Amino acid sequence: MKKILVLTEVELPSDFPRQVEHYLGNLVQVEMRRTDFEGLKSQFRDVRRGQIRADVLLDYLEPRVRGYEGFDKVVLVINDDGYVEGLNFVFGVAKMSGSLALVFTKRLRGEQSLYQLRILKEVLHELGHSFGLDHCTDPRCVMYFSNTIEDTDRKGPGYCQRCMAKLRSLLR
């Protein structure tokens, strides 16, 4: 069984790890810890834009978290705004079949339960990439590409049948 560590700067419900496990077909074990990324964020902030350079941070951290404390995947939930070259912002980033996923919460904000649901969707989306899933054409699938917060709100936290079948085979 794959082990996932969620390191978060934001307050998430205590059952957040169980929610992630549920949507990943109970094929993973998830642990969550609160932390602070201020030092990291200051190193990778583009002062002119006021955003974190997400792809550069991912490249820097990826080799450092591989196998971290026995976890197969690490997800950082960062209370900030991220971008990659060519895009105004990203909700998150992960390398295909990588060991690290980053989720940026600034543009996910809203009423508390909606905010937490948006974070759950983005964590599941980026974990999907880290397990080898590509974007999906089904706008209700969590692997659908979110260009706007409305796209994120429209899609469910669940994977479509096709993505879930592929995920099950990748996780076994």
SSE blueprint and pairings:
Layout: E1 2-8, H1 16-23, E2 28-34, H2 38-44, E3 45-46, E4 51-53, H3 54-65, E5 73-78, E6 82-83, E7 92-94, E8 100-104, H4 112-131, H5 149-154, H6 161-171
Parallel strand pairs: 1-2, 1-5, 4-6, 5-8
Antiparallel strand pairs: 3-4, 7-8
Features:
172 residues; alpha/beta; Collagenase (Catalytic Domain); 5-stranded mixed sheet; 3-stranded mixed sheet; 6 helices; 8 strands
Could you please describe the fold and organization of this structure?
- The model has no long low-confidence stretch (mean pLDDT 96).
- The protein has a five-stranded mixed β-sheet, with helices on both faces.
- The relative contact order is 0.16.
- The chain has helices spanning 16-23, 38-44, 54-65, 112-131, 149-154, 161-171; strands at 2-8, 28-34, 45-46, 51-53, 73-78, 82-83, 92-94, 100-104.
- It is globular.
- It is built from six helices and eight strands, in the order E-H-E-H-E-E-H-E-E-E-E-H-H-H.
- It has a single domain, classed as Collagenase (Catalytic Domain), CATH 3.40.390.
- With 172 residues, it is of the alpha/beta class.
- Under the CATH scheme, the architecture is 3-Layer(aba) Sandwich
Provide the β-strand percentage band: 15-25%
Number of discrete helical segments: 6
Mean pLDDT: 96
What is the element string, with H for helices and E for strands? Answer: EHEHEEHEEEEHHH
Q: Could you say how many structural domains there are in total?
A: 1
- Low-confidence regions: none
Find the count of extended strands (DSSP E, 2+ residues): 8
Query: What is the gyration radius calculated from CA atoms?
Result: 15 Å
Keywords: Hydrolase, Metal-binding, Metalloprotease, Protease, Zinc
GO molecular function: metallopeptidase activity; zinc ion binding
Cofactor: Zn(2+)
Pfam family, one: Peptidase_M54
